[in-house]
C-alpha cells in the first residue's frame, strides 16, 4: 500500500473514532437528561459552558417516592453540584423549576448548595415552584418567573404520627424559621412579610398560605424578574462574561 493510501486510511480511522466518541457523548447526555433532567449547554455564540439542572415533580427525601411519581432525588443532585463546583470548565448554572415541593431537609440542602456555588447561577420558575420550591428558586444569584408561573407559600406540614405536645409545636416552628430565614436572606422580601404570606387565611379556603402568580411574586420581592428562557440565559451569559472580565 502506498504512503498516500496509508495516510488516507489512517485519517479515515481517526474520523471514525471521533464520530464514535461524539455519538457516545450524545448518548450519555441524552440518558442523563432523561433520568436526571441535567445537561450541558455549550452551543451558544460565546461558547459559554452552562450546566442545566431541572428540579421537577416532588423533591425526594430519605424515602423513595413511588415509581410513577416525577421526582428530583437530592442524593443525585448534591454530588452533581459538588462536581460542578470542582469543574473549572463549567462557567454557570441554570436551574429550571416546576415542583410541587417535597422534603424540607432535602430541599434546603439543595438550596444551600446552589447558594454556595462560586459560579454565576440563575433560576427560572416554570409552571410552579411551591412550598420548599420557594427556597430553591431564590437560592440562585438571580431569579426569573414566567408570567403564568406560580409560587405557593404555606406553613410547614408533616405527615405520619405527630405527638401533640408543646415540644412538637416548637419543632415545627424551628423548621419554619429555617425556611423563613433562608428565603428572606436570599430574596428581597422581609422575614415578617414572608411569614404573613405563609399564614394568610384570605386566599386558600381550606388551608393557610398564599399563591403568587408571575408579577405578584416579583412585587412581593420573592423573585427578581418576570421572564422566560430567553431572558434567563441572556442574564446568565452577562453574569458569566462579567466574571471573566
UniProtKB/TrEMBL annotation:
Record key words, sorted: Hydrolase, Protease
**What is one process in the GO biological process aspect for this record?**
proteolysis
GO molecular function terms listed in the Swiss-Prot or TrEMBL record: peptidase activity
Q: Where is this region: Disordered?
A: 1-29
Is Plastid among the key words of this record? no
A Pfam family annotated for this UniProt entry: CLP_protease
Q: What is this protein called?
A: ATP-dependent Clp protease proteolytic subunit
Q: What is the lineage of its organism?
A: Bacteria, Bacillati, Bacillota, Clostridia, Lachnospirales
Amino acid at each position: 500500500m502506498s504512503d498516500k493510501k496509508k495516510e488516507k486510511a489512517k485519517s479515515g480511522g481517526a474520523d471514525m473514532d471521533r464520530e464514535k466518541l461524539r455519538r457516545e457523548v450524545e448518548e450519555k447526555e441524552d440518558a442523563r437528561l432523561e433520568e436526571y433532567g441535567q445537561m450541558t449547554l455549550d452551543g451558544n455564540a460565546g461558547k459559554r459552558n452552562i450546566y442545566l439542572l431541572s428540579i421537577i415533580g416532588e423533591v425526594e427525601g430519605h424515602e423513595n417516592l413511588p415509581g410513577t411519581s416525577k421526582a428530583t432525588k437530592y442524593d443525585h443532585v448534591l454530588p452533581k453540584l459538588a462536581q460542578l463546583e470542582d469543574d473549572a470548565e463549567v462557567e454557570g448554572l441554570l436551574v429550571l423549576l416546576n415542583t410541587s415541593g417535597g422534603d424540607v431537609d432535602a430541599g434546603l440542602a439543595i438550596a444551600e448548595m446552589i447558594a454556595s456555588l462560586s459560579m454565576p447561577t440563575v433560576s427560572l420558575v416554570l409552571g410552579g415552584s411551591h412550598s420548599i420550591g420557594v427556597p430553591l428558586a431564590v437560592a440562585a444569584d438571580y431569579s426569573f418567573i414566567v408570567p403564568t408561573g406560580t409560587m405557593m407559600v404555606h406553613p410547614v406540614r408533616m405527615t405520619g404520627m405527630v405527638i401533640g405536645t408543646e415540644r412538637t409545636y416548637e419543632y415545627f416552628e424551628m423548621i419554619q424559621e429555617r425556611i423563613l430565614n433562608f428565603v428572606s436572606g436570599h430574596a428581597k422580601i422581609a422575614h415578617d412579610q414572608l411569614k404573613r404570606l405563609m399564614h394568610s387565611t384570605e386566599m386558600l379556603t381550606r388551608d393557610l398560605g398564599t399563591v403568587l402568580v408571575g408579577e405578584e411574586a416579583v412585587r412581593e420581592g420573592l423573585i427578581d424578574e418576570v421572564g422566560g428562557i430567553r431572558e434567563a440565559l441572556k442574564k446568565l451569559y452577562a453574569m458569566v462574561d462579567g466574571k471573566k472580565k
